[in-house]
Every structure is written in structure tokens, then in C-alpha cells.
Amino acid sequence: MELVSVKDLTKTYSKHNVVDHVGFDLHPGKCVALLGPNGAGKTTTLRMLAGFIQPTSGTILFNEDTLSKDFRKYVGYLPQHPSFYPWMSGEEFLHYAGQLAGLTKHEVSDRSEKLLQLVHLTDAGKKRIGKYSGGMKQRLGIAQALIHQPKLIMLDEPVSSLDPIGRREVLNLIRELKKDATVLFSTHILNDAEEVSEEILLMNDGKLIEQGPISEIRGMQQTVTIRLSFEKEPKFIHEKLKEIDSVYQVTEENGVFDVTVHDLNAARKAIFERVQEEGWELSLFEITSGTLEDIFMKAVNK
Hints:
Layout: E1 4-13, E2 16-26, E3 31-35, H1 42-49, E4 57-62, E5 75-78, H2 90-100, H3 105-118, H4 134-146, E6 152-156, H5 164-177, E7 182-187, H6 190-196, E8 199-204, E9 207-213, H7 214-220, E10 224-230, H8 237-242, E11 247-253, E12 256-261, H9 264-278, E13 282-288, H10 292-300
């Protein structure tokens, strides 16, 4: 059974559909990455799911509760740029958030203690937030989103502004979160999505252009990449590789050629024949499955 069902979700500003008839389902216990370039409509979609803005049209159902009801009790939300009171301690901030969510003092105290432990801020709980690092603030923001035990946790670009250490801390935390709840997080960092999520929603220009489990989407792609390098870069190699019928695209970076092909067996045979005919000194021949970046670029450039 779906935790969330979204149908024909649309948000219009100045006669432009920022989100354009988007539909998808979220299932319990899954981590889903909402992908897309800047301006794709990711944040607007999350804000509608969080109840901060009303859709122009379409429906959102949480456990069969319709949009006309208050579904904020199901949702924990961390915006891209969360705001904190720097003079508060982390513990005080969680108490404040819990009271806003309608928890009792006993519930707030119990939840705050457990959440500070979950996000690895127990030792920093008494410290002022103004002294927190970027990663610590993001983890505190996630704890705030969890204070009322939501079924859906939504994170908007949770690692985009963090250094490598803070980014790793938050990604590790996302892995822990999905054990007990559904996680939906937006990002344009494809490696992060591939690392922690099982499913993707890929948006571009307000439309949902690809969705489903990453493994299935990879399987539907008809291309495979062959990686080549040579002792000495051959002349006119781009043109000669592109002459092969089963070759879709050829790119090069730092002397390594990525050859995207439709038919692996045919392409492999043809490339080895070309290597022999031209006398190319091949130093690397490696077959790789399509990455999320390949899927992303192919979908966005359709």
C-alpha cells in the first residue's frame, strides 16, 4: 500500500506551470531521491507535499487522507536553508519544535534525548547552535523534522552547502532514517542519490520525466559504456569510433574515451576489429553499466 499518492499535481505562477501535472507514489520504508537541475520544480513539489503552499490543481493523499485534511502530522520537513536561533542550544531548539508540534513536555524531553543521540549530537546538545558547524546544523534540522515521529521525512538539498565531512555525516544519517520511515530528498548531486536511495523521481522543467527503482531504470536503458584508453591517442579516433553502427556517443576526458553503445556484443567486436586494422595501442578496455548521470543526461536532453 502507498504511503503517499500524488496525482496530476500542478502549481502555476504567472501562467507558467512550475510543477506540471506530476504524479507518483511513495511506499513505506523507501528512500527516494528527487532529482533535477536547478529550476526543475523540486522545491515547489516538496513544499506542496509539506503543506506550505497549495497546489493549483491535483491531489495528494496520505494514507487515504485527502488534501482537504491536515496531513502535516505525517510529514517531517527540512528546507534547503533552515533557520535556527543561534542563542538556543540544540536541546532547547528541539524542545521548542516539539511544543510547536503539540507534544507534551514529557514527550518532548524523551524525544529530544533520543533524537540528539540518533543524529550524534548528544555531547553538543547543551551548546549554542551559533557554535555548530554546517553539518551539525543540518543534523539538528533533521532531528527537528523527526520530533513528532512522521511517516514521511522530506529533505530539500540536505548536503548541497556542506563540506565533505558534513556531507558524509548527513548521508550516513539518511541511511539510518530509512530503516524506520520513508525518506524523500531532493538533490542535484547524482552520486549522493545513487549512494543512499533505491528509487528516483527525475524532474525537468516542471515535469516528471523518469521514475522508479534505479535498478529497473538502468535495465530499461538500451546503452552500455565501453571505456578505452591508448598508449598514444590515435588520430581521428572520435570519427572512426562513431562510424561503428552500434556506437551511440563518444566522449573523452584526460585521455580516457567513454564509448556509449546500443549493442554490446556487436560494438565490442567492431572496436577490436578497428583496433587491429588501425594498429591502435590499446591500454584499457572496460565495460561499465550506465550510471545515474548517464540516465539523467539522456532523460533531460530528450
